[in-house]
Specification:
By secondary structure, the protein is mainly alpha-helical. The chain is built from 6 helices and no strands. The protein has a single domain, classed as DNA polymerase, domain 1. The model has no long low-confidence stretch (mean pLDDT 86).
Length: 109
Amino acid sequence: MTDLQSSPGRSERDRSEIRQRRLLFRAWHRGTQESDLILGTFAELWVAGFEADQLDRFESLLDCSDAELFDWIIGGAPPPPQHDHDVLRLLRNFCAKPDGDAQPTEGGT
């Protein structure tokens, strides 16, 4: 955790919003336009409604390579157990929608 996130004057909500913005930035700046569009758009729709543990899981996905993520998303390879979770399923569902309109439900789940 950075000094900005852990500073005593910040509320838990402030820290969560900062984390969400950082994850959104990371999702939009992957290095390839395809990854940016998929992960960035997904993050814009879902991250604000994620609980802290879901943010952890999304962040762990962002630590993976694009090639691994795409294999897991399209079903070309099964994800390892630590990445086989609700957030990856949401991402798969988001990518599987023909119009790309996989909207979050109440509470981001």
